[in-house]
Amino acid sequence: MYENYYGLNARPFLLSPDPKFFFASNHHQRALSYLQYGLDQGEGFIVITGPIGTGKTTIARNLLSNLGDESIVAAQLVTTKLDPHELLELIAAEFQLDVVSKSKAEILQVIEKFLISLHKQGKRALLLVDEAQNLPAETVEELRMLSNFQLNNKPLIQSFLLGQEELKGIIQAPNMEQFRQRIIASAHLKPLSCEEVQSYIRHRLAQAGYQNEELFSENAYQLIFEKTLGVPRKINIFVDRLLLFGFLEELSVIDSKAINEVAEEMDIELTGSINARQQSGATEATQLVVNSSENVESMREVLREVEDILENSIKQKIKLSRYVDKLLKQKNIELATKNSEVSDS
């Protein structure tokens, strides 16, 4: 797509977590330091929380990719609402243990035997539980029970929990006192500041091989910060679309005009306003029944909202059509050049 146009060797703003593009803001570096400290301690729980899209999974991937310690056997879980038995089955599967058709007690025995075998080899297990806010309290408690597996007073497995802010509520419940006592460090991620947004974008572009002059205008970073609220995932979505827009429009510098135009197209993606509109529409639909005197105006408002959504969709389709046309033209030029070279030879 836009990589060749901007001299990039990769797309720098993909949503998939990639340790290569890890950016260490103050909060992210602190969280990573806590994880590394926990590894050095070899015991207890580390808890990392933060809003959606602030980079918790990226931190976990960065940690795993830079372990550099063959004595640690790591597994990462991306959970849903698992009961304790299902959690143990998933842990066993990640460590490639055969527990098919086994009871909970039997699964625990298989896991303990595996952990003891690692210990005899001078190794230990590390479990990273992503999206941990989805775990019921009794399943979090099961993780605590796993930490009781010890040999010669040394824990055989260590767990890191990464989750959204709801995880705090689970851990702070009165019946989770024993779990809280085993937490040796915790950190809460926050969105990036305006200055960090600028450094984040420049860092990712540099990692993708960008070496040209400044790609964004002077006030662009402040505007991107305002549109994305400093959330890394939203920044990735927005800047990726900005680069595509710049390629289609053949822009060498992306300025406030381009940013505002793309932001308008992506309003639904960036602000979640589609959900607000749907909820508003649902509320209005209810009001049509409850208060018939407002029927006409409510219906007009719903239709205006639908019209806005359709207009945005049409704009995006036009952009895609222009993009395809550009690719076809480029392909035709390449074919014509090749045919010319063949005829000359």
From TrEMBL:
It comes from the Bacteria. It comes from Thalassomonas actiniarum. Residues 42-202 form the AAA+ ATPase domain. One of its GO terms (molecular function) is ATP hydrolysis activity. This is AAA family ATPase.
